[in-house]
Amino acid sequence: MLRDSEKYIGKMFDNTDLKVLIVPLIIEQFLAITVGMSDTVMVSFAGEAAVSGVSLVDMVNNVIISLLAALATGGAVVISQFIGARRHEDACMAAAQLELMAFVVAVFISIFSIAFAHPLISVLFGNIDSEVFEASKKYLMITAISFPMLAIYNSGAAIYRSIGDSKTSMKVSILMNIINIVGNYIGVFILHLGVAGVAIPSVISRSVAAVVITILASKNKDATVFLKIKEVFGIKSDFMRRILYIGIPSGIENSLFQVGRVAVVSIISNFGRTQIAANAIANNLDGLGVNMGNAIGIAMITVIGRCVGAGKYKEAKYYVKKLMCMGYLVIIIPALIIFLFQNSFISIYKVPDATKELTAVLVWIHMGVAVFLWPLSFILPNALRAGNDVKFTMGISLFSMAVFRFGTSLFIAKVFHIGAVGVWCAMIIDWIFRSSNFVYRFASGKWWHKDLKKE
Fold this sequence. Notes:
It comes from Lachnoanaerobaculum orale. This is Probable multidrug resistance protein NorM. Belongs to the multi antimicrobial extrusion (MATE) (TC 2.A.66.1) family. The longest helix has 38 residues. It contains 16 helices and no strands. By secondary structure, it is an all-alpha fold. The chain has one domain.
């Protein structure tokens, strides 16, 4: 795991430290996106209605997953800052409070999603045929059961990443993904359960992962930070406030960003199954292209959070630039691979030729621009969040989503009657606005706020 800042003077992380942190994160992110692809590939054998239903609900689920991930991010920032400030007991308490908050929030979301599945689908995707509607409702109700378990897993993973031990969370993720993939195969090809065949394994795999990572985190008492179970059952408002200071703006930002994506997909859904399916497949392939960038973004939270906790501004700037260079590297390489083997990737999916052709166009739009703008739009803001500049990132992201991504998509759809292609072009405009503002904020130095330990 990463060395504590008090043990040496100079750069807080050498190349070995960063490698130990980042490589397991890359593997974990790769597994996450490939499992998502396996869900889509396998359910595609159950028909276009099934794959459309799953893709629509995945957009809704991503809103919830983003909210839970934001809480974990808030916890990771606070824990990392406490470690950088050499306050390890406080870091342990923050870890326990993160587990408690995330679980309670997830339980309420789960109950709401199950109870109101029908009206949620109706409001969000009203103009879809009955087969897609029923598939969507079934998938949402089953996957909602897993939200509390996912919250526990995310919290445990955040604890390990904060201390630099991303290898443990990677191993648990591998276990979770193996269970999920095997379960998908059994559910779809042996039991012929359709959308339920990919939903039920998600519940089982997340539950197993939650139990395993909680046990490991509570027994890891030799680590800088570990989970004290007894502290999970007590409310400490000051620690919750610190986590929520980061978590609430990040949660609002991430959740409303995903809501915006759902709204955009609802525009696409008006253009029929082909566009819905092509959008879903392109999202999977493009996710594969940027997933290693997500790993750099997660590492940014740990590294910059430590620097903030230690009050080392110059080192924070140094590591932001270094990690951004890594971010570009891990985006460019997969983009080239996807460009070269695009047709082979798309042919995996059992969909009509028209869907495959549209998917190819969408992938070109995304990856052709992602190599320039994606790291600035989605990795750099994590540095700002770790510096407690969460309100700025929230404001820019929400404004850009509402005005550029959703507003422009709606305009193109209504005026020019263009569906998925118009939506993806609007996404590029969104990226341009985001990246330019985040770069300006970082260069100005205004992102560095007083750290939470001094409040």
